Amino acid sequence: MAKEVPNIAESEWEIMKILWENSPRTANEVVSALQGKADWKPKTIRTLLDRLMKKKVVGVNKEQRVYTFYPLYAEDECQRAEAKSFLKRIYGGTLKSMLVQFIEDDALSEKDMNEIRQMLDKKSK
């Protein structure tokens, strides 16, 4: 059975993107990578890293003089968990309800619909 991914807050996603991009990283490297992307003070970033460690989403290597942080879950695992949580909260857990809304609202282009048809055809084979 797969381990359940803890809930990640929106601000924590920014930290995770940096770690998925390249890790392990020191807290200072995470701070540097976020400069220009988020208007956060270094202390805020360290607090977010600490929160992610407590949630067991980020691990820390304490064997070196400077601690380095790394993700404990793959990006796609977290994306799937977030998508399931979103579907459950907003659409009662059914993907069909969400797709119907997008189709009815014309949010999907003809190209998008063709790609979805191809994926569905491939999946049903």
From TrEMBL:
Kindly name one Pfam family recorded for this protein.
Answer: Penicillinase_R
- Record's SUPFAM superfamilies? Winged helix' DNA-binding domain
**Which biological processes are named by the entry's GO terms?**
negative regulation of DNA-templated transcription
One MF term in GO for this entry? DNA binding
Quote the InterPro entries the UniProt record gives: BlaI_family (IPR005650), WH-like_DNA-bd_sf (IPR036388), WH_DNA-bd_sf (IPR036390)
Keywords noted in UniProt: DNA-binding, Transcription, Transcription regulation
Signal peptide extent: none
Q: Which domain of life is it from?
A: Bacteria
Q: Which family does it belong to?
A: Belongs to the BlaI transcriptional regulatory family.
Under the heading NCBIfam families, the entry gives:
BlaI_of_BCL
The protein's name: BlaI family transcriptional regulator, penicillinase repressor
